[in-house]
Amino acid sequence: MTLTSLAFRNFGRNRFRAFLTVAAVAVSIVAFLLLRTVVWAWASGAEWSAKDRIVTRHKVTFVIWLPKHYIDIVRQAPHIKTATWATWFGAKDPKREHEFFTSLAVDPATYFDVYNEVDVAPEALETWKHDRQGAIVGDALAKKLGWKVGDRITLKSGIFPGDWAFNIDAIYTARAKSVDRSTLLFSWTYLNESLRDRQRDMIGWMVSRVDDPAHVAEIGVALDKRFEDLDTPTLSQDEGTFNASFLAMFSAILGALDIISAVILGIMTLIVGNTIAMGVRERTQEFGVLRAIGFMPGHIAFWIVVEAMVMALVGGLVGVAVAFPFINYGVGRFIEENMGSMFPYFRLETANIVLALVVSALLGAVASGIPAMRASRTRVIDAVRRVA
Amino acid sequence: MVPIAYNVRSLAVRKATTAATAGGIALVVFVVAASLMLGAGIKKTLGSAARPDGVIVLRMGSDSEFGSVVDESNVPLILAAPGVAHDARGKPVGAREIVVVAAMDKLGTTGVTNVTLRGVDEDVMSFRPEVHIVAGRVPRPGSDEALVGARIRGRIRGLDVGQTFDLKKNRPATVVGVFEAGGSAYESEVWVDREAVRQAYNRSGMVSTVRVHLESPSKFDAFRAGVENDKRLGLQALRESDFYEQQSEGITTFVSLLGNTVAVFFALGAMIGAMITMYAAVASRQREIGTLRALGFSRTSILVSFVTESVLLAAAGGIVGCAASLSMGLVHFSMINFSSWSEMVFSFDPTPSVLFKALAFACGMGLFGGILPAARAARTSPLQAIRG
């Protein structure tokens, strides 16, 4: 019998306790993975963003629109391949006011040239481009609100008064993780024609693609320079920076989630440590005998540490096995459908699984540190004499 | 009944195990109490901006101040509506304000956030008597001088006494003072002269909202009828308390959803931890239990005794966790409020009901974690146990 196999055998000594400990570790790992996935799905939006896209908005605030002729200036600027614009509409379904979704008034002719990571049937797209009241919606949103192609719907807006009627012309699906599948897009012309004079011919922001992704920052600065001397100055950022700065608004929440996931690991360590300490205490005499027949303190410590690591790792594996279907087929689906604007892609990531397993094994070792040290230091004579 | 002192001493004997288990529960209670405190803090922050006789008038369908537009020409009609209080000189007590958001650099992280900019009347301090200056001075009327709320001060670049920020291009505003407003949402805002905001943000002929004070809170229905009955105005009147309730809805839902999810997982983990400890306690005290049974203590008293022990253990952890969570009272939590998309600073509010709930939560974990081990203890046969 090798040293390691002895450690494994000890694992099965108090089966019920081992089972409970594994369960506790598994629960902690599920919670840890859930929190990690929230943070990861939130934060990685910036990484998925297209490297060659620039967002140009008003320098001070997104509340102020830009004059529409700005788009022509952008289109003529060097290194700009194609450009489009959008205006935030703030639509609400009057029947389901609490369902938030993104709705934008866009330029149908160019919008999908700039955002080309969506899939939409070409005929449906053509219909939409020529329908003044046409709307194109993401598949997740269509499913949630029960819309089908051909439906006529009436929405309200938090910004623009009155009833707004739309024809659902097309439904798009995502080809990239970064695409929010719950957005509604419709023609900016429809919005513009309904506005009063002084709100006319204004656009929310512009998005363009550049031919030289490596120099996207410089191209943005050059764009802003062109608008600096005009009445409305702009701020251009590449999509990654734009998303990252958006993320900064939530940095406190992300920080709190990180703290909470550290706390759950702390609880897990305490539980494993407690189990190991109890097992060690009950076996003090045995260790005394082993020491008496010639095993070194290092052997004793080795057994205890390996036992703890194995227990924690088994718990981690069970946790991953539970978390995988739980996140990918349960919560994740729900979140993608209901909070798609924030979490377009909410799945368990391999890196997080590896992290969870490594962390559980390491914390098992940490948890067994004190019991292992104590047990290996106990003098043979005390150990053999001791009453548990 | 078995005296409680027996349980207390039993816990005291196994110091390490008791500490580890109670420590785990303390961590759980800490997180749960902190999330409840944040929920209470959000309610308080958004709720304390409301006064019982205060009413806010917005454009019909707007769900935030900055999405609302009220025509200047309608303001006299609103102020003339029935129920509006009048001051000593016979003027109606009301304030028209322009509320916008500006993107500003968040200190301590890379990124911008949206800060609420409120264009206020000269006599804003008498309209909101709870507001007082804690540093610097009151702005000169009609100037580009600004006041910042105490909570947002120092969190954003440019928002401290003597510093400047851009209202628009080439139009800097100088911060001359800092105000407190009873811990309310106003403390996360920047206040500037209304006409300065009007010019900078191009809002001629319109304001965002009109606020009035009523002669008494009971006059609300009459006032609302006066404002809302004229459909051409397209306005809605809300009690300030209802308006702020609406404003806090999204974020309180988010915090409680997150808090509850975390609480469920943590509770499961900590309960299993308590179970492990209690099973071990029962197993190692077989003889004691047998003796107690032989002495004539009933199965029920053994059951009650062990459940009590488990609850005591959990309560000890709960008290430590609650005590630790009180320290969160010093922390301010800065995040985006979902309904206004602007930065708001919340505090953790340790109300008695929050602490009571957290403690009850801990006792519940002890109760449910202890019941199975206690049942095993109660099943102990005195004869077998004593024979060992």
The N- to C-terminal Cα distance of chain A equals 27 Å
Instruction: Note the gap between the termini of chain B.
Output: 24 Å
Task: Please give the domain count of chain B.
Answer: 2
- Greatest interface (CB-CB under 8 A), with counts per chain: A-B, 52 and 56 residues
Question: Tally the helices of chain A: what do you get?
Answer: 16
Please tally the β strands of chain B and state the result: 14
Folded structure, characterized:
The complex is a heterodimer of chains A (388) and B (388). Chain A is of the alpha+beta class. Chain A is built from 16 helices and 13 strands. In chain A, strands 1, 3, 4, 5, 6, 7, 8, 9, 10, 12 and 13 form an eleven-stranded mixed sheet that branches. Chain A has a two-stranded antiparallel ribbon with strand order 2-11. In chain A, β8 and β9 form a beta hairpin. In chain A, α2 runs antiparallel to α11. Chain A is elongated and about 95 Å long. The relative contact order of chain B is 0.20. In chain B, a hairpin with a 2-residue loop joins β7 and β8. Chain B has two domains: 185 residues, no CATH class; 173 residues, no CATH class. Chain B is α+β, with helices and mostly antiparallel strands and 388 residues long. The two termini of chain B are 24 Å apart. Chain B has eleven helices and 14 strands. In chain B, the strands form three sheets. In chain B, strands 1, 3, 4, 5, 6, 7, 8, 9, 11 and 12 form a ten-stranded mixed sheet that branches. Chain B has a two-stranded antiparallel ribbon with strand order 2-10. At the A-B interface, α2, α10 and α11 of A face α2, β3, β4, β7 and α7 of B.
